[in-house]
Amino acid sequence: MKSTSATSTSAARSSTAATRAGQLAGRLRVKDDESPWSAAEIKEVRAILLEEIEVHRQELELAEQELDDLLRASSDGAGDDQADAGAKTAERVHEIALAANSRAGLAQAEHALEQLEAGTYGICENCGNPIGKLRLQARPRATLCMTCQEKQARH
Fold first, then answer.
1. Would you state the pLDDT for residue 88?
2. Which band of pLDDT confidence, cut at 50, 70 and 90, is reported for residue 12?
3. What pTM value is reported for the model?
4. Burial readout 108-143 (b: 16 or more C-beta within 10 A, e: otherwise)
5. For residue 123, what are the β-bridge partners?
6. When comparing pLDDT for 90 and 49, which is higher?
7. What residues form DSSP beta bridges with 130?
8. How many other C-beta atoms can be found within 10 angstroms of the C-beta atom of residue 107?
9. What are the contacts of 30-35 at 24+ separation with CB within 8 A?
10. Helix pair 39-74, 82-118: axis angle to 10 deg
């Protein structure tokens, strides 16, 4: 059972988060044909980003631990034939790629959360136009509008 002070602290945090979300809702830009962000939508996006940050941190920690284990194990590879050495190299490359992907996802989610807190969330980093609520609700880490994203994907 929660203590009274723990309950009141939790309630105060919720109230502060709700107030902050309400303040941000009026400041964030949207496309002309979209309704403004609501405090509930802001809270939902923040929760998704915080969850993504935690997941990426855990994935990164696991991938780095696996890579560390592989590097330690590879030092005693005396006598390995070429197939064994190749398999160990492929496994290391795979773990390096997993760590890099987790690190990139973590950076993107943290950047999006920083933008949300700063009131600049949802603005395309390339052209400065609104990204669009639907796109951000589908991909909260998006930093480019669809037009700029398509241009970048072509190049």
1. 80
2. very low
3. 0.74
4. bbbebbebbeeeebbbbeeeeebbbbebbeeebbbb
5. 130
6. 49
7. 123
8. 13
9. 30/122, 30/130, 30/132, 30/133, 31/130, 31/132, 31/133, 34/130, 34/132, 34/133, 34/134, 35/133
10. 160
